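Why run this: before we spend reagent on co-expression, it is cheaper to look at a predicted model of the complex and decide which construct boundaries make sense. The entries below are exactly what would go into the expression plan.
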Amino acid sequence: AQSVTQLDSQVPVFEEAPVELRCNYSSSVSVYLFWYVQYPNQGLQLLLKYLSGSTLVKGINGFEAEFNKSQTSFHLRKPSVHISDTAEYFCAVSDGGGGADGLTFGKGTHLIIQP
Amino acid sequence: DVKVTQSSRYLVKRTGEKVFLECVQDMDHENMFWYRQDPGLGLRLIYFSYDVKMKEKGDIPEGYSVSREKKERFSLILESASTNQTSMYLCASSLRSSPLHFGNGTRLTVT
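The model came back. Tokens follow.
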């Protein structure tokens, strides 16, 4: 069975500072990894995904993530955050490409941007 | 752009009522999903469907059922609502193995 651990439930960061949101997963098979963002009162929006190929994945809004198989991690980074990045971020894993059988989600990390 | 529409943003129901949550997608996706989202617990999969009239249990199906009579519509049914079903419900759809597209959610309160 798959599982996802997001190590921080809240991450406060000053505006224009860099940020890293941590995600570790466990799976016995090949995995597909995703980061979703949820702005207040909205559904989830895909930020980026790793299916295969380059381990450094670039997504929308200046975010990127690095797949590290040996560490079973998929941490999300942004070099300089903006107040509009305040949101809940979810890491998710699938062994079926994400669409075949749904996703297993972490519990979420609330990114709080301080002016 | 894919649009997943959940018919209600907010619902308030009484304990014991039968509740229907409706979800419609406009991109001919085969797969549709219902999740519930609770603080500190993330998203948990209730049911999903690969095709019309097909359904599969997710991680927390107890107290719920689903219906998929048409490809674009996936309904979540609470046969007898209870207070522990107060939650945010998120519908999603996908095409084969592509990433999920989510609706904006229905916040259900059971009193």
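Chain B has a mean pLDDT of 93. The first strand of chain B starts at residue 4 and ends at 6. Bring this page to Monday's planning discussion.
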